[in-house]
Amino acid sequence: MTEVETVGAGAGSVLGTRNSDRLREFVGKYGLLIVYAAAFVFFASKRSDSFLRVDTWTRTILSPTGFTPLLVLALGLTVVLAMGDFDLSFGNMVGLAGGTAGALMINYDINWVAAIFIAFLIGVTVGLANGYFVAYLNASSFVITLAAGTILFGIETLWTKNRSISGLEVQSFLDLDETKVIQNMRLPFFIAIAFFLLVWLMLDRTELGRYM
């Protein structure tokens, strides 16, 4: 092989590596958006009569039991994923916190503010415990949160006796869901938007967020 052929082969190899790196970077950055766009096009083509209606999207986005709580939960998980870790205890932690708040209000007549504060403390405690094991003991976030999720599920089962909690009649708490701020936009929607702005500011505009 001549010197020219060797240089040409080396340049081609470098170019191929760069293209591969760029493709990986592009997929890592925009892959999820591409999947969402493909899903949108698919459902729009299959259910164009209902999927693309304005009232369908309005009900979905403004629903206090749909988009709003999912956005708040997703924001919390986004911070964990931004650090390159997993949290497999997330769902069970939400279940335990929510079940605890409901049980305290219904079965023990505890004020809804106190019940939600206790549920919040449960989430904070679980998060701090997981973070301690992962950050300070260098344990695998996958293993730690998987174990934590199993423990939390067991605690929730014992606490609620594996029964659905129903019969919430605390009107002041229920009124939060019905409070309309602007036309049909209810208070939970604006709470979710406030959380979104706080998380965005932390991740994008603070030194802490940029170095996570």
Automatic annotation (TrEMBL):
One of its GO terms (molecular function) is transmembrane transporter activity. One of its GO terms (cellular component) is plasma membrane. It holds the Pfam family BPD_transp_2. It is found in: Cell membrane. Keywords: Cell inner membrane, Cell membrane, Membrane, Transmembrane, Transmembrane helix, Transport. The chain crosses the membrane at residues 27-45, 66-84, 90-106, 113-133, 139-159, 187-203. It is a multi-pass membrane protein. This is ABC transporter permease.
